[in-house]
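Training component of the fellowship. As part of building independent skills, the fellow (R.M.) carried out the full modelling exercise for a liganded target. The chosen ligand was magnesium ion. The inputs are recorded below so that the supervisory panel can assess the work.
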Amino acid sequence: MATLINEGKAKQLFTTDDPNVIQVHYMNQATALNGKRKEHIDDKGEVNNQIDSLIFEYLNHLGIATHFIKQLSDSDQLVKKMKMVPLEVVVRNYASGSFQRKFDTEYLLKFEEPVQEFYYKSDRLDDPFINDSQIHALKIATPEQLSTMREQVFKINQALIKLFAASGITLVDFKVEFGFDADGNLILGDEISPDSCRLVDAQTHESLDKDVFRKHTGNVMDGYRTVLSRLEATAK
Ligand SMILES: Nc1ncnc2c1ncn2[C@@H]1O[C@H](COP(=O)(O)OP(=O)(O)O)[C@@H](O)[C@H]1O
Ligand SMILES: [Mg+2]
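Fellow's submitted model of the complex:
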C-alpha cells in the first residue's frame, strides 16, 4: 500500500513497492509568499505534471541525469527517491522578481551571461539568499558538489531556453532542486513547471507563469495551458 511520506506546497510523495522509487502526485493548489497564501486551482496539478513530464523526458533524452522515471497518469509520475539538497538553485536570463527589486533594474533587462544564485530552502526563514561560504559553513554542500550543480544548471538552462524558444516562449528565470539518488549521484530532482519558471510570450511578453497568481493579474491557468499546448505542439 502506498503511504504518504511528504506533502509540500505543490506535491505529495508516496512510497511504491520499490524503496528507491516514489510516486509524485501534483496537487490542485497554488501558494505564494512561501505558503502564507494558499488557494485551490482546478486542473493545475494535471497541467503541471504534464508540463514537467514533457520537460524531464526531454532532459533525460539529452543525457542530463534527472530523478524522472515516467509519467503514470495525468496527475502522477514515478521518480527516483532522493535525499534532497536544501538549496533552490536559480538561473536568470533576464531581470525580474527579486533581482529587479533588489537592484532596481529595468524589467526583462537581458543579461550577457546567465546569473546564478543559491537560496537556502526554508519556508520558516523565507528561503534566504545564501553564498558559497555560508553553504560551506552550514555543511549543506561541498565545493565540488556546488560546482556540479552549477555546471548542470547551466546545461539545463541552455536546453530549456531552446525548448521554450521553439514554442515562442522566453525563459526569463527558473529554480531547480538537486538531490542524491540511491547510488550517491547528485542529480536534478523536484520539478520544472510554470510554478518554478518565469515564462513570457516571446512576442507580447505576456506572463505565462505563477506571477499571474502572485500579482492577481488574471486567470493563472490560461498561461499554464498555453505553455502545455505549445510544448505539446512543438514536441510532435
Ligand atoms: N526525487 C525526490 N525525492 C525526494 N524528495 C523530493 C524529490 N523531488 C522533490 N522532492 C521534495 O518533495 C517535496 C514536495 O515538493 P513541493 O510540494 O514542491 O514542496 P515545497 O513546498 O517544499 O516546495 C519537497 O520537499 C521537494 O524537495
Ligand atoms: Mg516546491
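The panel noted the following from the submitted structure. The chain has a mean pLDDT of 97. The longest strand covers residues 110-120.
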